[in-house]
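User: For a benchmark we're assembling, each entry needs the component sequences followed by a predicted structure for the full assembly. Here are entry 17's components. Please fill in the structure.
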Amino acid sequence: MRKQPDGAMDPTSWTPDASAALDRLVVSRRDFLMGAGGLIVGFSASGGILSPRPAPAQNAQTSGVPGDQLDSWIAIGEDGRVTAYTGKCELGQGLRTAQMQLIAEELVVPLDRITLIQCDTERTPDQGTTSGSQSHPTNFNEGNLAQAAATAREALLRMAAARLQAPVEALDVEDGVVRSRTDPGRRADYGELVGGKTFRLSLDSRARRLPPSEWRVLGTPVPRAEIPDLVTGRFEHVHNVRVPGMLHGRVVRPPAVGAKLVGVNEESVKDVAGLVKVVVKNDFVGVVAEKPWQAIQAAEKLSCEWSPGAGLVRQSDLYEHLRRQKPTSDRLVVDSKDVDETLARAASVVSATYRHPYQMHGSVGSSCAVADVRDGRVVTLWSASQAVHHLKQTTAMVLGVSPDDVRVIFKMGSGCYGLNGADTVSYDAALLSQAVGRPVRVQLSRQDEMAWENYGYAYVIDQRLGLDSEGRILAWDYEAWFPTLGSRPRTGTPGNVVTGFLAGFEPAAVTEPSPATDPSTYENGSNAAPSYVAGCVSGRCGGTGTIKSERVLTHTARSMFFTGPLRSPSRLQNTFAHESILDEAAAQARVDPVAYRLDHLSDPRLIEVLKAVARKADWDPRPSPRRGLSKRGVASGRGIACVLYEGDNGYCALAAHVEVDQDTAAVAVKRLVAGVDCGPISNPDGLQNQVEGGTLQGVSRALLEEVTWDEKKVTSVDWGTYRSLPLGFDLPAVETVLIDRRDVEAMGAGETTITLAAAAIGNAIFDATGARIREVPFARERVKAALSGR
Amino acid sequence: MSAITLTVNGRSHSLDVDPSTPLLYVLSDDLELRGPKFGCGLAQCGACTVIVEGRAIRSCVTPVETVDGADITTLEGLGTAENPHPIQRAFIDEQAAQCGFCLSGVLLTAKAFLDENPKATDEQIRQALSTVLCRCFVHVRMLRAIGRYARELAG
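Assistant: Structure for entry 17:
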């Protein structure tokens, strides 16, 4: 093993800058993994190899780091330190620490002996996108990182058995040291067994995962690794990446949606100090300057001529406009073919329409990336993208270079909650760097972030429920319209975000119009089907409820604005409509909302989490609204909602207690009780942090958040025009119920309870006042209108 | 360009910069500090907060010439990961962060206010934080951490 240079022997003493610099010099790990046999290298604690990075091999395989090989996931140095590689990265959700716990557990090594390298196209396996509450299901169950760690442990035990001449069954492992159980003096540590060498093994699907009953590190509230650096300003967000010779870019977006560039007058900025270049590519316009403030001034002064734009549908007409859209892409999630008849013979029908606006990710830091494009074609990109391998492919398309020449290195950004501007600003930086031949950092202005991000979907949803004479639901009929344009760029569609579009790439088309065809399997990933239907398709029932007469039909139309996944995409909008209409039916039947839910559910885990939340929330069983309502003064009430997120990825329930000042229409959320069952809990404190944060983000979205526009452009472009509940708002008590179920597989958690906030609050407002609000956000005018409509 | 002198976290710096440059860019680019962040550039979110002469200010809208000669403290000036300031210690103990981008606004606004008003009520603390944003909504933990620091100050 090659020794590291002097001064690098104790990686823990490195400054973050030194560590980061080494990261930037790292040799292509992919070339190493794909390369000739026998190459043995020493990984530093940062995962770097201490030699300059060569130009990528011309014939490098595009498959990258092979996910079926143990060496792609785990390396062990002579000193016994473990370097692990993951394609699921830390976004602020605590995943880095949870994954380190997983490795510590399966490999039986102390946490402080592990370095985790996250999301780097040349060093980590391609695990797609870190999103959709999929990281736990992906890396903590049978495959991938968990299986790699288990495979490594078993391989190390076999090596130790050979060295110690003892059967594996007679060995114990503790803190990375294998000992003979009968003669503990006979020992071999991991460094001796494999240090500096590669395993050269495939992931073993039979390698035994340690059962939760044996857990010592997983399942405990290990503090998050980043927090000391975050609170002391030492952490390197992507916004803090600085590379030698770096310039600063700023983009100039069109003044109206659909506007095309007619011309740019470069004379207008000739006096701006520090200006390096004005860059134009199709409708993409940007400036590069020596300093950030100079770039900002140049972007403001640059005179551009644009066509008038496409014109926007009046905001107040949005929902009716959506219904009229042709063509749409239609999908049936379930259709029992008897819904119309069942509704016709029902004793009563409860029907209502629910509306949900476009909302933003609204990251507190506008998006940022740093690109270094050498010779016009060799690209290093530091990005907070959730999908580095995909970004590598699409950045190559935008720049017209080979993907083999693009390396994307993940650096955490401001919390994204889905597809914020991280991908689009990566293209911005790359285009500008390519144009000037030097590294360029771009951070979007607040306005550019908010006016052009991929918004969460607007929805209009019609619900019709047929009830029998006892008030039980016989039939559920759901029909929804929502607009989309673009989304994640994936591996081939850079036009799915604004910069790719401006640079000349089309967004993915809304797929062919339909009538929808009958489904062949029950797939409820968007929670378009409510929790209370049986979900029966082709004779198999995959729902969590009992209602057999069921029809769920969605229409996807083309959006005026870019759209994309925003924390609980579609699931939140659908669940708002489902859990609200269910409450309306319960009120009509004069049954307690919890009891009414239980009457129509079949899934025991959903039932259990609902009951647990009701219990913790001191639920007072009675029909809503409460009796003896006064129409004046402050009224209080409670509401509840529950869902199995994505139909299979996290059970949750939420109870909300609210006070409504009926004279001013002010809504105050006083208490929230959020419960989740996402299987075995890796880190209870991390889960609690996610549940608390997600629930309150849901409150902000329910009460305040809405994208607005005029006849040509988005007008919610800062925190005055797009409101978010500040730290100092009248914070409710937030309590959590975490059900740790260790005999099942891990599910997602990060998007669970946010899904329920609007419904639980809306139901509580109804309970308090008898007024039903069917449109998010519950802005004061809407509450006022609902109150006066009683 | 003109010569500006700043004392940042106890160290003096002489800089030749456009005097209209907002302080934030001088701190984060010229001095490569990581604490103060660009969030909005409009003094609406707090991510760029620094303490100048005991007061929390929004450095994204503060021309550097207006703080020439001033004593400035950023998040990294309070303490280190190894030896954190009591308010930083409270945030670590409460695990009061997710992405952490907003922390300059949260910690420094709270610290400056509480140092000035050590007997502030919870309501007054909330009021002081009424224009600080955290979009991960770590509000519960952050307010608990701030409360912990407030109790320490109040003795």
